[in-house]
């Protein structure tokens, strides 16, 4: 008998104490985010120490491009999470498997397209970004290899999203751990040519990431079939590997705005780094390091936001609206406490943290310390926005969070950064962060309280209360 027809979706997110359930579900996501960010930070240390500030500036520019081009795929994955979660909350396991099958085909095609775009147009985009001349060739070499691995990287991320949508956050963490460990080990070996490995410089760092993600993805697929995961596509389910246009329509209608939300963030960062690049390689390196450190500060908000999206989606499918609201405010409180704690710790060791990535003799360290002093605390406000937006999106209401992000970043942060920079100098640019994050949080809370997001419909029954 097909396990999908005999076994319920477990673990369920519609039962048990909310605080404990949210904590236990978000903890593996948080640890996974820590692993990914720590992985990137360690690789930045290798690159900065072995290859210098120009190479570090190159990877900062390259990573922003990658974030931009993968946004289209991210939105589809998140839409699949919501569809799967609502179907499982309503006990429609076969419908959830249909979402998995269609998402797999659609996602594979999109990932190949995005990877090709990244490989072919890397140099053109880097030139448009005003990448410092002394970092351009390094950035091109790094970017092209990274994007060659996009289909494997985001195949893995789709599987991870499906698991989280069904309530399993532990399995993705284990394979993230494997990927991060391989990447950290391979980076210095391929950068410096240690032992039998060739000396490849910055290309070696990119190849290490490619290899580690490929191995992790293949082993994750093998593991799920070995364990007979209840949403896997079996031989009898091959007909589900098709483009079901009803599901495709929902994935596009809900996924495109979420992907565009990442595009908004990426475009905003591209505009910002274009401004920062005009101050030279040291400024670009300082900005890259400050953003690397801020990624740690954002981790609780991202983990809790991901957890509340999965939890709220299942509870919306089950019609448990009182539980949905309690999930929201429990998530907000968790974010304020955890993000505030991380901000306080990093402020105590600000200079030491920045010095991990940069040579101590230049001015880039002082620049990075200054950026952190102004921006870090404002990520508490970003976290409030992210958690509330996660619940709103879990109903399928994706447009307003996108509009709020666009207003806060493109029409508040970037114009203010440009104005402050040109009027008061480099040090004043960073006040644009707390102002824009405050506006984003306020607007999203107002929509949560007074908007009609609960009336949004996906496939099948209405999600509204």
TrEMBL record:
<feature type="transmembrane region" description="Helical">
    <location>
        <begin position="258"/>
        <end position="276"/>
    </location>
</feature>
<feature type="transmembrane region" description="Helical">
    <location>
        <begin position="428"/>
        <end position="448"/>
    </location>
</feature>
<protein>
    <submittedName>
        <fullName>MATE family efflux transporter</fullName>
    </submittedName>
</protein>
<feature type="transmembrane region" description="Helical">
    <location>
        <begin position="329"/>
        <end position="349"/>
    </location>
</feature>
<feature type="transmembrane region" description="Helical">
    <location>
        <begin position="202"/>
        <end position="225"/>
    </location>
</feature>
<feature type="transmembrane region" description="Helical">
    <location>
        <begin position="171"/>
        <end position="190"/>
    </location>
</feature>
<keyword id="KW-0813">Transport</keyword>
<dbReference type="GO" id="GO:0015297">
    <property type="term" value="F:antiporter activity"/>
</dbReference>
<feature type="transmembrane region" description="Helical">
    <location>
        <begin position="105"/>
        <end position="129"/>
    </location>
</feature>
<keyword id="KW-0812">Transmembrane</keyword>
<dbReference type="GO" id="GO:0005886">
    <property type="term" value="C:plasma membrane"/>
</dbReference>
<dbReference type="InterPro" id="IPR052031">
    <property type="entry name" value="Membrane_Transporter-Flippase"/>
</dbReference>
<feature type="transmembrane region" description="Helical">
    <location>
        <begin position="21"/>
        <end position="42"/>
    </location>
</feature>
<feature type="transmembrane region" description="Helical">
    <location>
        <begin position="396"/>
        <end position="416"/>
    </location>
</feature>
<keyword id="KW-1003">Cell membrane</keyword>
<dbReference type="InterPro" id="IPR048279">
    <property type="entry name" value="MdtK-like"/>
</dbReference>
<feature type="transmembrane region" description="Helical">
    <location>
        <begin position="62"/>
        <end position="84"/>
    </location>
</feature>
<keyword id="KW-1133">Transmembrane helix</keyword>
<feature type="transmembrane region" description="Helical">
    <location>
        <begin position="369"/>
        <end position="389"/>
    </location>
</feature>
<keyword id="KW-0472">Membrane</keyword>
<feature type="transmembrane region" description="Helical">
    <location>
        <begin position="141"/>
        <end position="159"/>
    </location>
</feature>
<feature type="transmembrane region" description="Helical">
    <location>
        <begin position="296"/>
        <end position="317"/>
    </location>
</feature>
<dbReference type="InterPro" id="IPR002528">
    <property type="entry name" value="MATE_fam"/>
</dbReference>
<dbReference type="GO" id="GO:0042910">
    <property type="term" value="F:xenobiotic transmembrane transporter activity"/>
</dbReference>
<dbReference type="Pfam" id="PF01554">
    <property type="entry name" value="MatE"/>
</dbReference>
């Amino acid at each position: 008998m097909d396990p999908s027809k005999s076994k319920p979706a477990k673990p369920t997110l519609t039962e048990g104490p909310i605080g404990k359930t949210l904590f236990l579900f978000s903890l593996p996501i948080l640890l996974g985010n820590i692993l990914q960010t720590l992985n990137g930070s360690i690789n930045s240390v290798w690159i900065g120490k072995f290859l210098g500030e120009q190479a570090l500036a190159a990877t900062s520019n390259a990573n922003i491009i990658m974030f931009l081009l993968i946004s289209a795929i991210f939105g589809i994955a998140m839409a699949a999470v919501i569809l799967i979660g609502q179907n499982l909350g309503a006990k429609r396991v076969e419908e959830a498997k249909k979402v998995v099958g269609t998402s797999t085909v659609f996602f594979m095609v999109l990932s190949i397209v995005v990877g090709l775009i990244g490989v072919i147009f890397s140099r053109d985009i880097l030139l448009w970004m005003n990448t410092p001349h002394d970092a351009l060739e390094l950035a091109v070499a790094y970017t092209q290899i990274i994007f060659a691995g996009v289909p494997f990287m985001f195949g893995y991320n789709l599987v991870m999203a499906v698991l989280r949508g069904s309530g399993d956050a532990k399995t993705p963490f284990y394979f993230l751990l494997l990927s991060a460990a391989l990447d950290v080990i391979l980076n210095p070996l391929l950068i410096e040519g240690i032992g039998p490995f060739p000396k490849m410089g910055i290309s070696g760092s990119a190849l290490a990431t490619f290899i580690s993600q490929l191995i992790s993805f293949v082993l994750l697929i093998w593991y799920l079939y070995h364990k007979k995961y209840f949403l896997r596509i079996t031989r009898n389910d091959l007909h589900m590997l098709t483009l079901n246009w009803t599901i495709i329509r929902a994935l596009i209608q809900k996924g495109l705005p979420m992907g565009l939300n990442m595009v908004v963030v990426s475009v905003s960062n591209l505009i910002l780094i274009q401004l920062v690049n005009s101050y030279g390689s040291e400024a670009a390196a300082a900005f890259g390091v400050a953003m690397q450190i801020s990624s740690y500060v954002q981790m609780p908000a991202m983990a809790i936001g991901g957890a509340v999206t999965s939890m709220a989606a299942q509870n919306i499918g089950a019609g448990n609206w009182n539980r949905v609201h309690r999930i929201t405010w429990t998530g907000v409180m968790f974010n304020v406490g955890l993000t505030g704690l991380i901000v306080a710790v990093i402020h105590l060791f600000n200079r030491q943290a920045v010095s991990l990535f940069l040579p101590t003799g230049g001015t880039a360290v002082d620049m990075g310390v200054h950026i952190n002093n102004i921006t870090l605390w404002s990520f508490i406000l970003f976290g409030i926005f992210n958690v509330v937006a996660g619940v709103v999106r879990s109903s399928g209401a994706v447009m307003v969070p996108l509009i709020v992000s666009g207003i806060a970043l493109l029409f508040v942060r970037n114009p203010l950064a440009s104005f402050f920079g040109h009027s008061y100098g480099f040090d004043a640019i960073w006040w644009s962060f707390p102002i824009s994050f405050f506006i984003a949080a306020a607007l999203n809370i107002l929509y949560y309280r007074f908007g009609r997001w609960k009336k949004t419909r996906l496939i099948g029954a209405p999600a509204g209360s």
